[in-house]
């Protein structure tokens, strides 16, 4: 079946540091790929998505590119802020459901 | 746009009672709604998928008689945890999707924290 693997956290960065959270997927065919963010005590919010190979999703300074050759969808941000502290989930959509990674906790410190 | 609400946000109940959680799409019609369960510091596990007007499709290992799902309209789905036990304590999250295609984005509710005493 489909699976999504993302790097384990927690990841602790200083404000303005560069962020990369790795995500790779295995699926039958080419699913849509998503990054969701979850702030403490809240549900998931869609951060960005890409529906086909070479698509780049971007939002709020975050971006991720759908790489078919490496089956990856790594999340990047050039300069993180304290307000970016949250749990980030990579997900792939195939068939009628989303398959989620285990989540990566990001903590940004001053 | 694309706001999904859940009610209640937190509920505490006694063992053996039933609890109903509502999921509403506030500004769009949700052909399909999903119910997930999230354990502490873990990912979301899909419990079931419901299409408006039809029976829910449950994932393997999820008891359909224990977790009753009703998707009576295009804006409302309910999850009822029947005869709740402490092991049912969890964070339940719903999501809603405009269409039936897997490429359509799922929009998530804020979640419901269930604690069974």
Summarize the topology.
The complex is a heterodimer of chains A (110) and B (117).
Chain A: E1 3-6, E2 11-14, E3 19-21, E4 23-26, E5 32-38, E6 44-50, E7 56-59, E8 62-65, E9 75-77, E10 86-94, E11 97-100, E12 104-109
Parallel strand pairs in A: 2-12
Antiparallel strand pairs in A: 1-4, 3-9, 5-6, 5-10, 7-8, 8-9, 10-11, 10-12
Chain B: E1 4-7, E2 10-13, E3 19-25, E4 32-38, E5 44-51, E6 57-58, E7 67-73, E8 76-81, E9 90-97, E10 106-108, E11 112-116
Parallel strand pairs in B: 2-11
Antiparallel strand pairs in B: 1-3, 3-8, 4-5, 4-9, 5-6, 7-8, 9-10, 9-11
Summarize the structure.
With 110 residues, chain A is an all-beta fold. Helices cover 0% and strands 54% of the residues of chain A. In chain A, a hairpin with a 5-residue loop joins strand 5 and strand 6.
Question: Which labels suit this protein?
Answer:
heterodimer, A: 110 residues, mainly beta, 4-stranded antiparallel sheet, 12 strands, 0% helix, globular, B: 117 residues, 7-stranded mixed sheet
Q: What would you say this structure looks like, in words?
A:
The complex is a heterodimer of chains A (110) and B (117). Chain A is 0% helix and 54% strand. Chain A has no helices and twelve strands. Chain A has strands at residues 3-6, 11-14, 19-21, 23-26, 32-38, 44-50, 56-59, 62-65, 75-77, 86-94, 97-100, 104-109. In chain A, the strands form three sheets. In chain A, strands 2, 5, 6, 10, 11 and 12 form a six-stranded mixed sheet that branches. In chain A, strands 3-9-8-7 form a four-stranded antiparallel sheet, with no helix packed on it. Chain A has a two-stranded antiparallel sheet with strand order 1-4. Chain B starts with a strand and ends with a strand. The mean pLDDT of chain B is 90. Chains A and B meet through strand 5, strand 6, strand 10 and strand 11 of A and strand 5 and strand 10 of B.
């Amino acid at each position: 079946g489909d699976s999504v693997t993302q790097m384990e956290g927690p990841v602790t960065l200083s404000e303005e540091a560069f962020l990369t959270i790795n995500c790779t997927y295995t699926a039958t065919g080419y699913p849509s790929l998503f990054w969701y963010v979850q702030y403490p005590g809240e549900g998931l919010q869609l951060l960005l998505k890409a529906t086909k190979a070479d698509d780049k999703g971007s939002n709020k300074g975050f971006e991720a590119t759908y790489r078919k050759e490496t089956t990856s969808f790594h999340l990047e941000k050039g300069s993180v802020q304290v307000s970016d502290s949250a749990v980030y989930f990579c997900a792939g959509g195939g068939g009628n459901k989303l398959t989620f990674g285990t989540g990566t906790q990001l903590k940004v410190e001053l | 746009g694309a706001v999904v609400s859940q009610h209640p946000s937190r509920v505490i109940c006694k063992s053996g009672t039933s609890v109903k959680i509502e999921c509403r799409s506030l500004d769009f019609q949700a052909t399909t709604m999903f119910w997930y369960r999230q354990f502490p510091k873990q990912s979301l596990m899909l419990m079931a998928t419901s299409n408006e007007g039809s029976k829910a499709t449950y994932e393997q290992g999820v008891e359909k008689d224990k977790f009753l799902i009703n998707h009576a309209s295009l804006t409302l789905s309910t999850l009822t945890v029947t005869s709740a036990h402490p092991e049912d304590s969890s964070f339940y999250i719903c999501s809603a999707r405009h269409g039936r295609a897997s490429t359509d984005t799922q929009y998530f509710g804020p979640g419901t924290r269930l604690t069974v005493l």
